[in-house]
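One record is set out below.
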Amino acid sequence: PFLIQQGFLARTPRGRVLTRGGWQHLGLMPPARDGEADLFGSADPDSDPDL
């Protein structure tokens, strides 16, 4: 609860996740897409040479 109150963690349907402030406090770069995995790779078909 303390880390949520301080703004370092957030409660989501996926569970607790580190917020942007939490990433900055640790001196790390947050994931570009908030940690969401893309099941089929890139959403941009022009960026995939196999398509």
